[in-house]
Amino acid sequence: MQNKIILLIDMDAYFASVEQLCNPCLKGKAVAVCGDGRTVITTASYEARKYGVKTGMTVYQAKKMCPGIIIVKGDLNKYIDTSLSIHKILLDFTEKVEVFSIDECFLDITDSYLLFGSALDVGKKIKQRIKSEIGLNCSIGIGPTKTVAKLAAKMSKPDGLLEIKKEDVEKFLKNLPLEKLQGVGIGEKTAEKLKMLGIKTAGELGNASEMLLKAHFGINGHILKRIGQGLYDSPVKSYLANEIIKSVGHSHTLPEDTDDIKVIKSYLLMLCEKVAKRMRKYRVAGKTITLILRYSNFKTFMKRCTLKYYTSESYEIFKNAFEIFEKNFGLKNKIRMLGVSVSNLITDDGFQYLLDTFQKKKKFTEVKDKINDRYGEWTLKPASLIIAEKFGIVKKCAMIGARQIKKCEEKI
Amino acid sequence: MSVTNIGEKVKTGVIFTKGGIFIKWFEWKEKKIEIKKMTHRWWTQEGQNKILHFSVIADGGYYEISYNLTNFEWVLEKVEVD
Q1: B19-76: per-residue pLDDT in tens?
Q2: Shortest CB distance from B39 goes to which of A23, A373, A376?
Q3: How far apart are CA A288 and CA B17, in angstroms?
Q4: A148/A73 Cα distance (integer angstroms)
Q5: Which of B1, B37, B42 sits opposite A70 (nearest CB)?
Q6: Which of A102, A154, A370, B38 is the most buried (most CB within 10 A)?
Q7: Closest partner residue to B48 among A18, A24, A373, by Cβ?
């Protein structure tokens, strides 16, 4: 079997770098990007990181650590469109480009690298083009698997390029502390649990008994061992495959945590309107509705229900999502984030509209969509959305995959 | 340094060439402001409106200007002046 060559392109301090690119006065300065109305840092420039400023910190903490820090309000549209420009460059090297998040992409160049020289040459050319055409720096990791490529990128930050060849993987992982594997399949808690079993390095994890790992981590024991061996892998999806829709979803962090049921209901309806509109745009209908909820203590819960029929109607989605909320969650705590997604999708060929009730709904929805398309989003909207608007509506949500949206909104 | 949202229509001098749009100047508060450098551009969409955004550097500050491809309006969106 041919050895695979996988690249991970990871943009350096992405949001902060885009802001420094737009406004060169910010270059070389400690900059932090925060979200709309939020006081949490989503990304900090490397200059700010030197002072210990990190993602997730409050603006107050950041200012205390780095008094001269410049706080910039993030603009998700700007970052998404810049990402799309980066994707265009990457697609010149292979069509196997998997968008992992707003600032990370995997590339499988196994079949194309010879056109450009070596794998390292591909890495150098990508870095050069992103720098000259967009003006941003990135770090690139090259390896035989996604995990190794991600590790290499992580180690080469910032503005680096590191290749770990298949024959060097074992040596590379042997003494690598487990902490370095965080973000590449091993979380903080798993690392802690592994340490309690006497496993402190990736090499030790690779050599550990699979029986032992399975006894403590279930089926994941096998995956953990493969990660430790540098063998855990999944294929890089092609860019076109990214566009095959498996679910449609939206999530929003509220401008401030709330336990006001009217606000929560209104926000949920707004999310369902957005989801339903996109479903209609993609001509899909679904029957599994998932509600994601994060409380102010950052505890996140997810619950789903499957309907007997397919729908792309916002009120149907809302009704069921709210039912999930009432049955399973309730207001135990203030709510920080809400998300709704619809999966189990089929192409909507209009079959459900054979029923009279659906016919009326369909006509109404068509007219509503036409008006909103022509005059702008939310021109025609349910009256109850005004509550969400007053609370601070989030206007921007670009049409990229649900997973990416979730990831970038977690950052913003 | 802080960015101020403006949202005012502005008169703009632009060169359309080589498939690109290059802003040379714009008028704001009865002053003609010469663009020194266009630093970045990106798209957004509002309904059917496609809007092209530019970040530019001119004398005394940083500006964000948008161009609506439906009604051909230029808008000064944001300003950051020292």
Answers
A1: 789 999 999 999 999 999 999 999 887 656 789 999 999 977 899 999 998 899 999 9
A2: A23
A3: 50
A4: 34
A5: B1
A6: A102
A7: A373
Min Cα–Cα distance to chain B from A252, Å? 19
Closest-CA distance, B40 to chain A, in angstroms, reads: 5
- Given an 8 Å threshold on Cβ–Cβ distance, is B48 in contact with A374? yes
Contact criterion met (CB below 8 Å) for A34 and A16? no
In angstroms, rounded to a whole number, what is the distance separating the alpha carbons of residues A397 and A412?
11
DSSP A37: T
CATH of A245-411, one of 3.30.1490.100, 3.40.50.10240, 3.20.20.20, 3.90.550.10: 3.30.1490.100
Which CATH architecture does the domain made up of A166-229 adopt? Orthogonal Bundle (1.10)
Tens of pLDDT, residue by residue over A300-356, are 888 988 887 778 888 889 999 999 998 888 777 889 889 999 988 776 654 444 444
Please tell me the distance from the alpha carbon of residue A98 to that of residue A48, in angstroms, as a whole number.
30
**Predicted ipTM of the assembly:** 0.87
Spell out the CATH class of A6-163: alpha beta
Q: pTM of this prediction? A: 0.68
> Taking the CA atoms of chain A, what radius of gyration do you get in angstroms?
23
The residues spanned by each domain of chain A are 6-163, 166-229, 245-411
Query: DSSP assignment, residue A182?
Result: B
Closest by CA position to A9, among listed A116, A144, A157, A118: A157
